[in-house]
Amino acid sequence: MPPNKRLQKKALKLECEWGACQDSFSRMENFCKHAEGHLSAGNMAEEDEEEAEEERNCLWRDCGFCSVEGPEELRRHLFFHCYHTKLKQLGQQVLTAQPEIGSCSIGYHNRNIIPEIPDNFICLWEECEQPPYENPEWFYRHVEMHSLCIDVPTGDCEVPICCRWKDCEATAKGRPKLREHLRSHTQEKVVACPGCGGMYASNTKLFDHIIRQSAMEGQRFQCSHCSKRFATERLLRDHMRTHVSHYKCPLCDMTCPSPSSLRNHIKFRHSNEKPYSCEYCEYSCKNLIDLRKHLDTHSSEPGFHCDVPGCGFTSRTPGTMKIHHKREHEGSFIARYKCHVCGQCFTRGNNLTVHLHKKHQFKWPSGHPRFRYKEHEDGFLRLQLIRYESVELTEQLMRERQNRQAEEDEDGDQTEGQEMDEESAICKILNGGCKGVVV
Fold this sequence. Notes:
The chain is α+β, with helices and mostly antiparallel strands. It has helices spanning 28-43, 71-97, 136-149, 175-186, 203-215, 233-240, 259-269, 288-295, 318-330, 349-358, 391-411; strands at residues 14-15, 24-25, 56-57, 66-67, 160-162, 171-173, 191-192, 199-200, 221-222, 229-230, 247-248, 255-256, 276-277, 284-285, 304-305, 314-315, 337-338, 345-346, 373-375, 381-383, 387-390, 427-428, 434-437. It is 35% helix and 12% strand. The longest helix is centred in the first third of the chain and has 27 residues, at 71-97. Mean pLDDT is 76; it is low at 1-7, 43-55 and 413-439.
């Protein structure tokens, strides 16, 4: 085990990896604000309400994430990239100070794969009324504040302190131990591997991660979905379960990987509840982002004017103005969405969706709100064709589809077409209890 060196704090170098951006920041506040600007430019540019239903893609390098549940999900995802970038920087500083440990040998292309963030971060400290956070950095700082605000007798650094988290009866000796204990509730990590992006709760666990790699002869088993590697087939099979969508919507064929994502699906797809109302008209919507976009329509004066001489373009949002500049004055609006059938390219996912639907007669399965697009090695975003379902769930969907088909055959109403059949591409993965399905 390496010596327990106390590292001097060094300035962070937080590099933005959104698209071609390479801006760098030393403070998280500035970094997060900058990253949020990319999101506004990419998703607040259009004026019709169909934009609320279109694909929202993360353009962070080597990520390829596509939001399904709405703009809030993509915002949480982006802020987690910012937090993850900070942890990787801290990990790089730790490993640089301990060169004898070595470096990570796992594929570098996994470095920006981050976990699913289905909900905002909620503080469950007793009597805390702080609204949920969408940014993990601010959430963890807030929870740390609770540990700092507890009264501790002067000079007694190891006095037992009761944790006041909901339903927790644990005690910790002193503030540092309480802070460490709170991470068991928040799942906060303190460092990440700069090579593969894995996050850890302590520097020691990061060291173990690096040392364990050199002890293994090789990691021959690779996940076909996210490309992570494992030393044994059993470890790979256990990992594959994290990709499986176990939870089926009772109202349609949609399946979700977690109960929280299923709740969000039902809220946005099957509920008519619209709790956010406009104070100026009868408009209401399901989330705060859409309400803010609507409120801009009540502004009599456009807030932004094109600064190119001779151009009279105006807009209500900076995102619309930025895209106008790229399209009309910079010529840099890249068509990154590519049809995997004919190779035609589009600047927006929604345009490719319309193309696949009308040109190639593709349809998504019942309950799935839209196509998903995944970034490939050549930089283009193409239709994601594989989705993992549990064996039992897949077989249930197949039986339901066959029953519906039989009823249509009996009624004589069957129509011919070139629909994408999600059951036609079922394949077994390692006999490990999950299947891939085209969606």
